[in-house]
Amino acid sequence: MSNLPSEPEFEQAYQELALTLENSTLFKKNPEYRIALKVVSIPERVIQFRVVWEDDNGDLQVNRGYRVQFNSALGPYKGGLRLHPSVNLSILKFLGFEQIFKNAITGLNMGGGKGGSDFDPKGKSDNEIRRFCVAFMRELARYIGADTDVPAGDIGVGGREIGYMFGAYRRERNKFTGVLTGKGLHWGGSLIRPEATGYGLVYYVGHMLEYAGVKEGWAGKRVAISGSGNVAQYAALKCIELGATVVSLSDSKGALIGEVTPEDIEAIAELKVNRKALSAYPLKDNLKYIEGARPWTHVGKVDIALPSATQNEVNKEEAETLIANGCKFIAEGSNMGCTLEAIEVFEKSRQEKKGDAIWYAPGKAANCGGVAVSGLEMSQNSQRLAWTREEVDEKLKGIMKNAFYQGLNTAKEYVEASEGEFPSLVAGSNIAGFVKVAMAMKETGDWWTKTEA
């Protein structure tokens, strides 16, 4: 790749997958899968466009828009839209690449993609956000559709932005179809969709606790959570509901440390709707705010860590601190929440300390609940049906259980382990998702071996 510009986030995501495949027995048993890895690592299509919109002063503004349609072997491209000034092609390729295998793990018929813009919603009025979303969708509309590519929300894109974009698509294409997920409940959205990633994360970790023999489950556990958006909010609420104590939340400017209550979460959710930072939250005796910090080195003793903000938010030193402070389970609510060096620390602990180790679960498995319920929303749209909250929640629980056991059982099959080790969920999840996509690609002619040519 020396002739290509550096794409550090994408290269990290590729390396993490490739290393776990290389360190397993997969390529020994199926050497032809090396060809599949080469093919799957290149997007089927990358779309870039300009977005021209007008601010409240009547001045013209321009941003870059993107959609990476990475892989459609299992179904229409599926993945979120991110609005954030950090957005670039490397980040969207990393997210789209992860999305391929995450979607495969759900068991639903969805391919992988990702998109967004370097537009910053913070400090913008509702009218400016509306005008941007309409301009963005005017360009994107020609490349997406219910059976082609179905975007969803991500950082900076919530229900309001999805509404503006859906309306723009409907007017532009003269179609009312399930082209976006995360829609309002009155016009095709699914119950549990806002909660799904956070709830699913907690359901997944529940299976880790059960497998590890933690009979009391979540009850009495101290849980460190980063982030303060949808994923972190609903993960925190579900943890509290199940008897755990949540001891942190955070955003890009700092961390709240202390016992977080449901009332705190409700107030913080209102802050986020108004695009304000955590530093604007009026503190009570139960919380302190540390500017410029992430929670991991400030929370003290914890049992479970749930990074739920953005990529690379747990580094090597923070991983070592979590282990030193007694953390036994870590699962990513964010995509690629841990650096490669942090993952190496967790995996080394798993191998050396066996049943007394920290056990790590990657985002492509642990946070797949959000896209899973997006897939369920697509199914409801196709049938012109709306399922109850209980129906969707039960389906979500089943999907998260299957995601856990896919990774667990695949690790047992392909990753050599000594007596007493927990199976490697990162390796098992990577292999399970990759094999499913690779088989579909082979059977539909996206790659082949010499004897089949």
Taking the alpha carbons of the first and last residues, their distance comes to 26 Å
Shape: globular
**CATH fold assignment of one domain:** Rossmann fold
- What is the level-2 CATH architecture name of one domain? 3-Layer(aba) Sandwich
- Calculate Rg over CA atoms: 21 Å
In round numbers, the mean pLDDT is 96
The count of helical stretches stands at 15
Q: Identify the quaternary structure here.
A: single chain
How would you sum up this structure, described in words?
There is one protein chain. By secondary structure, this protein is an alpha/beta fold. Among the domains are: 43-175, Leucine Dehydrogenase, chain A, domain 1 (Rossmann fold, 3-Layer(aba) Sandwich); 196-366, NAD(P)-binding Rossmann-like Domain (Rossmann fold, 3-Layer(aba) Sandwich). It has 15 helices and 13 strands. It has a 5-stranded mixed beta sheet with strand order 1-2-4-3-5, with helices on both faces. Strands 7-6-11-12-13 form a 5-stranded parallel beta sheet, with helices on both faces. It has a 3-stranded antiparallel beta sheet with strand order 8-9-10, with no helix packed on it. Strand 6 (222-225), helix 8 (230-241) and strand 7 (245-246) form a beta-alpha-beta unit. The longest helix is centred in the C-terminal third of the chain and has 26 residues, at 389-414. It starts with 7 loop residues before the first helix and ends in a 10-residue tail after the last helix. The model has no long low-confidence stretch (mean pLDDT 96). Keywords: Acetylation, NAD, NADP, Nucleotide-binding, Oxidoreductase. One of its GO terms (molecular function) is nucleotide binding. Substrate binds at residues 78, 99, 102, 153, 374. Residues 190-445 form the Glutamate/phenylalanine/leucine/valine/L-tryptophan dehydrogenase C-terminal domain. This is Glutamate dehydrogenase.
